[in-house]
Write a structure and sequence with these properties.
By secondary structure, this protein is an alpha+beta fold. The protein has a single domain, classed as Aminopeptidase (3-Layer(aba) Sandwich), CATH 3.40.630. It is built from four helices and seven strands. β6 and β7 form a beta hairpin. The chain is globular, with a radius of gyration of 15 Å. The two termini are 24 Å apart. GO terms for molecular function: acyltransferase activity, transferring groups other than amino-acyl groups. This is Acetyltransferase, GNAT family.
Length: 146
């Protein structure tokens, strides 16, 4: 089941599971020391796939300086290879089209997933840069009509 909720509608269990998965992957597995939870969580729309009560895939979407962005895109290791990552991007783009129509889209993606986002119409802008010890790339997508 796919779930799409603003922060204030998340249950405490959903919030815990989201933060646990994000910290597990982006801090522990990737060995990055940074403030994983930030104020963008408060204004974000949270998109996630539930499988047997577990979060299998997750991302957050929010407006930033007149543009829409998304991030913290993750599939739990035990659910990889099942198509949830691509389905997650589809749900992200549908949510952007519905909730942020005609708004420019920009992301900062980890370099290893640049080609995945290109398959969804994202265009790379500029050179790679280091963000929290990890190579990233800026990417843009044309606004989606509502």
């Amino acid at each position: 089941m796919w779930v799409i909720k603003p922060f204030n509608q998340l249950t405490t269990k959903e919030l815990f599971d989201i933060l646990y998965l994000r910290t597990r992957i982006f801090v522990v597995d990737q060995k990055r020391i940074y403030q994983e939870v930030d104020t963008n969580d408060l204004k974000a729309i949270h998109v996630f796939k539930l499988v047997d009560g577990n979060i299998a895939a997750y991302a957050r979407i929010f407006e930033d300086d007149g543009q829409v962005t998304f991030g913290r895109v993750v599939t739990a290791p035990e659910y990889r290879g099942k198509g949830y990552g691509r389905a997650l991007i589809d749900h992200i783009m549908q949510t952007i089209q519905t909730d942020f129509p005609n708004t420019p889209i920009k992301i900062e993606a980890q370099i290893q997933v640049e080609s995945l986002y290109q398959k969804f119409g994202f265009i790379t802008q500029g050179d790679p840069f280091i963000f929290h010890s990890t190579p990233h790339i800026r990417m843009v997508h044309k606004p989606l009509a509502g």
